[in-house]
Design a protein that fits this description.
Layout lengths: L9 E6 L5 E6 L10 E6 L4 E8 L5
Antiparallel strand pairs: 1-2, 1-4, 3-4
């Protein structure tokens, strides 16, 4: 069976260029106080760009 991701620590990573959400990761909110910013591959831009933490809508 597939693992179920719990929504309380789940965040979306948004591409800075096209604003699409391509990655969902868990964040340790007790240890990390700042916003997450990673360089990831964006399938829509077709290159590696900065991805910043964004909200997950629908809560």
């Amino acid at each position: 069976m597939a693992k179920v991701k719990r929504s309380e620590n789940l965040i979306a990573l948004k591409c800075e260029i096209c604003k699409n959400r391509g990655y969902y990761v868990h964040k340790n909110k007790k240890a990390v106080e700042r916003k997450i910013e990673l360089k990831k591959f964006c399938a829509w831009c077709r290159k590696a760009t900065k991805h910043k933490e964004g909200k997950i809508s629908g809560k």
